[in-house]
Write a structure and sequence with these properties.
It is built from 27 helices and ten strands. The chain has about 575 residues and is of the alpha/beta class. The strands form two sheets. It has a six-stranded parallel β-sheet, sandwiched between helices. A four-stranded parallel β-sheet has the order 3-2-1-4, covered by helices on one side. Strand 2, helix 21 and strand 3 form a beta-alpha-beta unit. Helix 13 packs antiparallel against helix 14.
Length: about 575
């Protein structure tokens, strides 16, 4: 046996028994004998790559390719090293070289797709991964990679199909079940998401990501104690995981255990100071506790949440200082209810600043809010802005003022609209407005799950039927959207008129509310509207109440005429509805 052959044999034997360093040295000895031996450079580079010595491995692949440019495996492995180093553009070039040399190499196409996805070149990534699957259709990891690419491209339905295909081919792929659960949740299918997460946990009970997926699914369905157990199991498998700590804070907060929730959020922030979910959860927890001094400054983190859409104004933010002779833009954010709750502060901002206040709101609120005291102009969001000197997001005004400073009521209906939308006479009866469901947003998983927990069906109000039959109340629907279709088949004895027929905006809704004696509503914009008008409001609140209704309170510092009827148990509306029934008798 020649000296070269002996070195190569020694290297192969050491590699077989896992003596990696010895194998590297043996290949180096072989290369000292034959520096032009491409295979030795390649094999040594593979060992260096396995040892995490990426720069040396890359140099080895380069030397192998200099000697044999058309070697697909060397291009492929070189691309893998570049990808690990975060050089995805160079990795793409290496993988493409491999596919040109070996067009039927599914590993080259698969790696190319993953690298393109990392570069957010989504269509190219999907095309490459589909090519890989054409070459190896039964390869579960190929379907899994395609699912990840569809996820990155914002195509959750196709991603879910790909993860399901991966599970069909490899039923013990826990990561595919975890990702399938996340996509089903994103598609507004919480029950199916729960099943996928349960599958993940059955495959890998100790996998923290599986426990996290199950906890998230349980939370969406209002199973807060079960969600807490899952988050703690995730933390047992990965102690100090910031996202798991943040989610633990969320489920503790949902159960009203706010001190414990704060501790979990603080632990998450200590582990990862930029953990946005923990920062946001901590802020809302403080607000729910009535700790406005710390809560409102912390609430500024809302603009870092996904989809928050901070306005990119160059003008400075108004913080409460005098600004006479200047123009202050006060701009609405988030939903209708938020605008209606916080617009009370616009006149105070005008009075304190001395500035000309321009109020920018959703178009549907434009007519209602025109003529607010101290507001020079109200304009619809989306219209072209005229020059201004300062700006402030509407909800930031709560950090400058307090609810008690604002006049209440602070909204009123236009008398001409009240006359135009006069309700039929109801002599001797109390007119009661009813809102039983919120706006469903299937494209926003957290909001969609929350809406399922806050909304009822019209049939849940069957307990009010005796009051309708006895002539005590006259029910008027204030329900918007698809849930209003339930009026076509109301429960027996529940007589309810459609008060929003022909209504186009909040100014006309206010005209209907002005004619009512009471509004019963779930946590929606209509509840804010009625309370801002000074109407008596019975608010039906889910167990995990929104921070604005505060912890453990039936009254509200925001609305003196509002009473909260809160669930005593998650997903159980019997107690709140019975409480309202007793009040109405």
């Amino acid at each position: 046996m020649s000296v070269l052959a002996a070195h190569i044999a020694a290297a192969q034997e050491m590699e077989r028994v896992g003596a990696w360093e010895g194998a590297v040295l043996a290949y180096e000895a072989a290369l000292a004998e034959a520096p032009m031996l491409a295979e030795a450079h390649f094999n040594r580079a593979n060992l260096l790559r396995r040892a995490g010595r990426h720069h040396e491995a890359l140099a080895g692949y380069d030397r192998a390719l200099a000697l044999r440019p058309g070697w697909a495996a060397a291009h492929l492995n070189r691309g893998a090293v570049l990808a690990v180093q975060g050089q995805d553009g160079d990795a793409v070039a290496a993988y493409r070289a491999a596919t040109r040399i070996e067009p039927r190499n599914n590993f080259a196409w698969s790696n190319l797709g993953n690298a393109l996805s990392a570069l957010r070149r989504h269509q190219e990534a999907i095309a490459a991964l589909r090519t890989a699957l054409l070459l190896a259709p039964e390869r579960a990891i190929g379907h899994f990679n395609l699912g990840n690419a569809f996820t990155a491209a914002g195509r959750p339905a196709e991603a879910a199909q790909s993860f399901l295909a991966a599970l069909i081919r490899q039923p013990d792929m826990a990561a595919a079940a975890v990702n399938l659960s996340a996509r089903l949740r994103q598609l507004g299918q919480p029950a199916a998401a729960l099943q996928a997460a349960q599958m993940a946990v059955s495959i890998a009970p100790a996998l923290p990501q599986a426990q996290m997926a199950l906890g998230t699914a349980e939370y969406d369905l209002g199973h807060f104690a079960a969600a807490e157990a899952c988050m703690r199991a995730a933390l047992a498998g990965q102690p100090g995981w910031p996202l798991a700590l943040a989610n633990l804070g969320l489920v503790l907060s949902a159960q009203g255990r706010l001190d414990e929730a704060l501790a979990a959020y603080d632990a998450a922030i200590l582990a990862s100071p930029d953990e946005v979910q923990a920062l946001f959860g901590r802020a809302t927890c403080l607000l729910a506790m009535g700790d406005y001094a710390r809560g409102w400054p912390a609430f500024a983190v809302r603009f870092k949440m996904p989809g928050a859409g901070r306005r990119g104004f160059r003008q400075p933010v108004w913080r409460g200082e005098p600004a006479a002779g200047r123009t202050l833009l006060v701009h609405a954010e988030q939903g209708f209810g938020d605008t209606l709750q916080f617009v009370r502060f616009a006149p105070l901002a005008a009075a304190r600043s001395g500035a000309q206040v321009v109020l920018e709101v959703q178009p549907e609120l434009l007519r209602l809010l025109k003529g607010m005291p101290g507001v020079a102009r109200v304009m619809p969001r989306g219209a072209r802005l005229k020059p201004f000197d300062l700006h402030v997001p509407l909800m930031d005004l709560a950090g400058v003022f307090t609810p008690e400073l604002a006049a209440s009521p602070y909204l009123a209906a236009d008398p001409s609209l009240v006359a135009a939308h006069a309700l039929p006479p109801a002599p001797g009866r109390r007119r009661v407005g009813l809102v039983w469901a919120g706006q469903s947003r299937p494209d926003q998983p957290h909001a969609y799950a929350m809406d399922r927990r806050r909304s009822l069906r019209l049939r849940d109000f069957a307990r009010l039927a005796p009051l309708c039959r006895a002539g005590g109340i006259s029910l008027v629907s204030l329900q918007h959207g698809p849930p209003a279709e339930q009026l076509k088949a109301p429960p027996p004895g529940l007589e309810i008129a459609d008060g929003l027929a022909g209504i186009s905006d909040f100014a006309e809704t206010a005209a209907i509310v002005a004619q009512l004696d009471l509004v019963i509503a779930v946590d929606t914009s209509t509840a804010h509207l009625a309370a801002a008008m000074g109407k008596t409001v019975f608010l039906l609140s889910r167990f995990d109440a929104c921070w604005r209704w505060m912890h453990g309170r039936r009254d509200s510092p925001w609305y003196p005429t509002l009473t909260v009827f809160r669930q005593e148990r998650p997903n159980d509306w019997r107690g709140p509805i019975e409480g309202i029934f007793e009040k109405l008798q």
